[in-house]
Specification:
Elements (H helix, E strand, L loop, with lengths): L3 H5 L8 E4 L5 H9 L4 E4 L4 E2 L6 H12 L4 E4 L2 H13 L3 H8 L3 E4 L2 H9 L13 H8 L8 E7 L11 H7 L3 E7 L2 E2 L5 H11 L5 E4 L2 H13 L3 H10 L2 E4 L2 H8 L13 H15 L3 E3 L2 E5 L4 E3 L2 E3 L3 H12 L7 H5 L9 H15 L5 E4 L3 E4 L2
Parallel strand pairs: 1-2, 1-9, 4-5, 4-6, 6-7, 9-10
Antiparallel strand pairs: 3-8, 11-12, 12-13, 13-14, 15-16
Helix pairs in contact: 3-5, 4-5, 4-6, 9-11, 10-12, 14-16
Length: 377
């Protein structure tokens, strides 16, 4: 049996609903959030083109072996490793690495550096910011005219470039750029789960949404536009749903449309889960109501540490009262969230009675005679 002490210290994300869009490691991320008490709604925003089946990558690999590059730029660890593993599956790994033997090697960050070194390559430079912009800035003073530069790209889609302006910037410096699109993404074969997730975000059914790759952000935005929800989605992300991104590269497509996001100090899945657990409760603090702790979430409420599921009608009533805590809302005000009640004020009394019963603490909602109802803060 649960003690009162245990009930007073629930998991940090108790009652919160968090949407995740990850395609890779979705089960792991779900477990990290659920361990902290969250309810998770998951739908992969993208699917990955299997590397062994990527004819385009094979053709580019053959071309680089035949005509080795003067410079290699690795942008992601998983992308570069995947490329080498794919080449190994085709029996070309040794030939590809030999083609890089005489090239200058640039790494965009520590993960890419680790993958390069694991393959026996040594980088000459890597930016502290892990940004493509700093790589371009670093190369500004070099004479790249006529140099063949292989750029390992990651997460490209037909509609979206993960490093906007980077390849063009190298071309402007005179380089002959060979783009290597590793791990190309496409929209899910079955869009129904993603459509349901987007609809739920627009309807205020989640407290937060998480993104672990920029292609996933792009896919969600494009799909929302395709099903006529681009406007409602942007409004929800800007006003009611907290957006968490694993890092600045992931957040870039959101920043382009003016949507702010919260990011961890380290671009890791565990760090992102900890950030959500620490940050979201601070953004949605509990209310002190009639001596009880009341947390109003997107899909449920928490009363003194215990998660309480309410009907859609009861939750809508409570959210209306919580938006203006302590203020009296008239029966007419509350009728606006009870569309099926028409203009019958008695329906509000019935609905408030059901809400009180579901909460289990009747004094949370005070009746103000001849005026209406309020949260007893």
């Amino acid at each position: 049996m649960t003690s009162s002490a245990e009930r007073s210290t629930p998991p940090s994300l108790a009652g919160f609903t968090v949407a995740i869009t990850a395609a890779r490691r979705a089960d792991e991320f779900t477990a990290l959030l659920q361990r902290r008490g969250a309810r998770v709604r998951s739908a992969a925003a993208i699917t990955m083109v299997p590397l062994p089946d990527d004819d385009g990558l094979r053709q580019i690999t053959d071309a680089l072996i035949a005509d080795p590059p003067d410079m290699l730029i690795a942008t992601t660890g998983i992308g570069f490793r995947g490329w080498i593993e794919a080449a190994d599956g085709w029996g070309l790994a040794d030939d590809l690495l030999a083609a890089f033997a005489g090239a200058r090697v640039i790494s965009r960050g520590p993960k890419a550096t680790g993958a390069l070194r694991a393959a026996g390559l040594r980088e000459e430079w890597s930016p502290q910011s892990e940004s493509s912009a700093e790589v371009l800035s670093h190369l500004q003073g070099d004479d790249l005219a006529g140099l063949r530069v292989a750029v390992q790209l990651h997460g490209a889609t037909d509609e979206w470039d993960p490093n906007p302006g980077f390849v063009d910037g190298l071309i402007d410096l005179g380089a002959d750029v060979v783009g290597v699109p590793v791990y190309r993404w496409k929209a899910p074969d079955d869009p129904a789960p993603l459509d349901a997730l987007i609809t739920g975000v627009c309807a205020g059914e989640v407290d937060a949404i998480t993104f672990t790759s920029a292609p996933a952000v792009a896919s969600v935005l494009l799909r929302a536009e395709g099903i006529g929800l681009a406007g409602p989605l942007r409004e929800a992300l800007a006003e009611t749903v907290v957006v968490y991104c694993v890092g600045p590269v992931t957040a870039a497509p959101l920043e382009d449309i003016g949507i702010a996001s919260v990011q961890p100090d380290r671009m890791r899945l565990g760090a992102l889960a900890r950030l959500v657990a620490d940050d979201l409760p601070r953004r949605r603090p509990e209310l002190d109501v009639a001596g009880h702790a009341l947390g109003v979430r997107a899909g449920s409420v928490v009363v003194d540490g215990a998660v309480v599921d309410l009907s859609a009608t009861s939750l809508a009533l409570l959210k209306a009262l919580a938006e203006r805590p302590g203020e009296v809302l008239s029966r007419e005000d509350l009728l606006t969230v009870l569309p099926a009640a028409g203009d019958d004020p008695h329906a509000v009394e019935v609905a408030i009675g059901r809400l009180r019963g579901a909460l289990g603490v009747r004094e949370l909602i005070a009746t103000v005679v001849k005026r209406g109802y309020r949260l007893a803060v």
